[in-house]
Amino acid sequence: MTILVTGGAGFIGSNFVLDWLADPAAEPVVNLDALTYAGNRANLASLEGDARHHFVHGDIGDRARVDQLLATHRPRAIVHFAAESHVDRSIHGPGAFMKTNVEGTFTLLEAARAFWGTLEGDEKAAFRFHHVSTDEVYGSLKPSDPPFAETNPYEPNSPYSASKAASDHLVRAWHHTYGLPVLTTNCSNNYGPYHFPEKLIPLMIVNALAGKPLPVYGDGQQIRDWLYVKDHCSGIRAVLAGGRLGETYNIGGWNEKANLDIVQTVCALLDELRPDPAGPYSRLITYVTDRPGHDRRYAIDARKIERELGWRPAETFETGIRKTVQWYLDHPDWVADVQSGAYKDWVGQHYGAR
C-alpha cells in the first residue's frame, strides 16, 4: 500500500511527506510535484536513498501521467496539496491559479474517480481523496465576528481564494454526484521550516538578516490565525485516518495575531538570537501600500476536528515561532538556494513601487 501526495516538494507538502515517513511503519509515498518556483527538491534531501519515497516530476494536469501513477502504485489515498497559493502572485497573474487549482484539481478528481472505479472490496472501501484547502475561501471577518466554522458561506475575495473555493466545490460535487470518498480540510495561515520567503514570516526573517526593509501592508492590523506546519500535518493525518466521508474539517492554531505583531515578534526573536550591531531589527519596519482587496481578518473555529477526532495543535504561537526563526538561522544555505534571480526580480517588481 502507498499514498500519492501531490505538491509534496512545496512548503506544506514536503513537511507532510517528511512527517509521514518519520514513522517507520508508514506506507511509502509517491510524491508528484511540478517543481514550479515554490517546489524544492532540497526540502526532501533527508529522504535521498529512502526506498519508501518515490519522487515524480510531473503536473497534476497531465492526465496520462496521473493515470499511470495510479495504475502502477495503486495508492490507498491521494493527499492533494498541489496548488498555486500566493495571493499577491494571483493578483499579478491569475491564469496560473485557474490552471493549477481549478483545472488541475478537476483532472486529478477524474483520474481518482476512474481509478476508484476499478477497485473492489476492502481496497475500494479504504480509498480516500483528501483535498487540502484554505480558510481564505470564507472571505473576511469583522472584528466582532465569530471565527469561521465549516458551515460558513464561501465569499472569496482574491483570485487565489476564488480558485481554491472552486476546487473545494469540485471536490464536494464529485462526492455527492459520483460517490468519490473525499475529505476536505481548510487550514489557517501556516508557518515553519521550508516556507518559501515570499510569505510574511520567512520574508521578514530573511530581509531582517540581510538588513533590508521589512514591508508591512497598510497599517499592519490585518489579523490571521497562525498554525505551525507540523501541527497542520498531524491534523491532516487525523482527518485522513478518521474523518467522515464528504465532510470538511477546519484546522486552526487558535492564534489570532495582527501582521504587525507578527513582524515585531520576529524582530524581537532575532534581536535575542542573532543581534545586529546596527540596532534593533524593528528599525527596518517599512509600511507599504496595502494589497488590493486585502482581507482584514481570518480566524478558524477548529472545534469540530477536536470534538470528532480529538485533535488539537501541539504548539503555541510562542513555541512555534521560536522554532521557525531558529530553523532559518540554522539553514542559511537553503535560504540562499531558494532566493534565485527570478525570486529577487519578483520581490523587486512587487514591493519596489510600494
Describe the structure.
The protein has a domain at 3-191 and 227-255 and 296-315: NAD(P)-binding Rossmann-like Domain (Rossmann fold). It is built from 13 helices and twelve strands. It has helices at 11-21, 63-73, 87-92, 95-118, 121-126, 159-178, 200-209, 229-242, 259-273, 303-309, 317-330, 332-338, 341-352, and strands at residues 3-6, 29-33, 53-57, 77-80, 128-134, 182-187, 189-191, 214-217, 223-228, 248-251, 256-258, 285-288. Strands 3-2-1-4-5-6-10 form a seven-stranded parallel beta sheet, sandwiched between helices. Strands 7-9-11 form a three-stranded mixed beta sheet. Strands 8-12 form a two-stranded parallel ribbon. The model has no long low-confidence stretch (mean pLDDT 94).
Topology order in helix (H) and strand (E) letters:
EHEEHEHHHEHEEHEEHEEHEHHHH
Query: The CATH topology of the domain at 3-191 and 227-255 and 296-315, please?
Result: Rossmann fold
User: How many separate helices?
Assistant: 13
Our measurement of the CA-to-CA distance between the termini, rounded to an integer number of angstroms, reads 51 Å
Structure class? alpha/beta
**Rg, Cα atoms, Å:** 20 Å
Give the strand order of the largest sheet, numbering strands 1, 2, ... along the chain.
3-2-1-4-5-6-10
Q: Please name the CATH architecture of the domain at 3-191 and 227-255 and 296-315.
A: 3-Layer(aba) Sandwich
CATH homologous superfamily assignment of the domain at 3-191 and 227-255 and 296-315? NAD(P)-binding Rossmann-like Domain
Average pLDDT, to the nearest integer?
Answer: 94
> How much helix is in the residues?
40-55%
How many extended strands? 12
CATH class of the domain at 3-191 and 227-255 and 296-315: Alpha Beta
